[in-house]
Amino acid sequence: MSLASSNFASSSGDGYELQMGRWSRKLSGPFLDFAGVNTSGRILDAGCGTGALAVELLQRTEMAEIVGIDISDAYVAHAKSAIGDQRATFETGDLTALHFADGTFDQVFSQLVLQFVPNSVGAIGELVRVTRPGGSVAAAVWDLRGGLIFNRLFLDTAAMLDPAADALRSLNFTRYLTRPDELAEAWRAAGLVDRKAGEVTIRTDFSSFEDYWKPFDGKDGPIPAYLRKAAPEMRQRVKDAVRRAYLDGEEDGRRSYAATTWVVVGRKQSD
To answer: Which structural domains are found in the chain, ordered by start?
Structure first.
């Protein structure tokens, strides 16, 4: 599988859990409430990460078989280790070149991944292909520009100090599928019918600035990738400025930020 199939920097399952897994778990329930879940059949968790959505699916289904697939060997290994339910299996794979036969799955879900797939149109086509006629395909992606406050807090601050951070900010806020109506339009273009689109918002809660910053010291995701390349002096300047932005006139402590996703679900037309 080509690494070009994803531009999300990945290193370890624990790193992803700290960076994004905790928010994936909070999002999984509301996302499935929106999309709806069958209690039986075969379900694909496309871009499963460390298994947050799969855990929620297992709690909502009885006889379903869940297959999780992700480009990261480390994330798949973490999911296998953490989830012992025999109804769920996990494997490494490329969303733009799925090995499953046409119509393999009754439902397909993709949570917080498609915005990181350069050929996202090809990936959506594959999700539709492996869905049976009459089955459903659902996705959630962050509203990166308008709805992910903890992410903007860092990027808006760092962009004022470092041209490299400004470039990352521009890339982040213009990712395909993360702007209004793009995800819904992609579902229409893919030929899915009975479409429903909307927004789901969760809260991202941090106990302190160090809790907020700790994921950025890791290796998973775009911001840690930027910080690893930054000179030590610039890295410290950015951290100090982001700390001031986090404190925002109050003592260090708990902060809670809204985090909004675009969500969509549609049905594959019957033959």
So the answer is: 3-267 (3.40.50.150)
